[in-house]
Amino acid sequence: MKAYDVKKGNVVEYNNTVYQVRDIERSAAQGRGGNVKFRFTMYSVPGGNKFDLSLGGDDELREVELSRRQATYSYRDGDAFVFLDDEDYTPYTLDANVIGDDAGYIVDDLSGCYVQIIDDLPVGLQLPASVAMEVIETPPELKGGTATKRPKPARLSTGLEIMVPEYIVTGERVLVSTASGEFAGRAD
């Protein structure tokens, strides 16, 4: 596939290594006849090692066949996370280094996840767009706080820290965007 066809989440092969594309920066050409450049931030699958690659729009990348199975988080086994297939209950075990920073979004019975599989081996995880989590610690609301847009820090049940509006209180459940790591609204 051409570099301009690559989207976030695609799995590609480069120099005999399989990578998942996590971020794409497009730089417009300067002057006449300039070529558009794409800068890909990719992580090796499996392993999760970061790799940056710059290509021209017409450069080729080989897409890797990847199957995705919808799964629900079941339990943690040491450093590994175990997900159960929603259809046939096949367990998929993913190491913490494969999940990386996404581990902060994994809560009990988290559904809507997709385990990515290459050659019958689970190699990656795609989280739902947002996750409902409980606020376990946040400063109290100041009088008149709802009229202003001052955010305050909040620690969530997995240890993740985000900024929330002042009206959010300890014990409340909030939605957190898994793409940006930001407050996405009240849950429930």
Give keywords.
1 helix, protein biosynthesis, single chain, Transl_elong_P/YeiP_cen, about 190 residues, OB fold (Dihydrolipoamide Acetyltransferase, E2P), 5-stranded antiparallel β-sheet, elongation factor, Translation_prot_SH3-like_sf, Transl_elong_fac_P/YeiP, SH3 type barrels
What would your notes on this structure say?
The protein has 188 residues and is mainly β. It has one helix at residues 96-99, and strands at 11-14, 17-27, 37-44, 50-56, 62-63, 67-77, 80-85, 91-95, 113-118, 121-126, 130-137, 151-156, 161-165, 173-177, 183-186. The protein folds into three domains: 3-63, SH3 type barrels, CATH 2.30.30; 67-128, OB fold (Dihydrolipoamide Acetyltransferase, E2P) (Beta Barrel), CATH 2.40.50.140; 131-186, Beta Barrel (OB fold (Dihydrolipoamide Acetyltransferase, E2P)). The strands form three sheets. It has a five-stranded antiparallel β-sheet, with no helix packed on it. The longest helix is centred in the middle third of the chain and has 4 residues, at 96-99. The radius of gyration is 20 Å and the shape is flat. It is 2% helix and 50% strand. The model has no long low-confidence stretch (mean pLDDT 84).
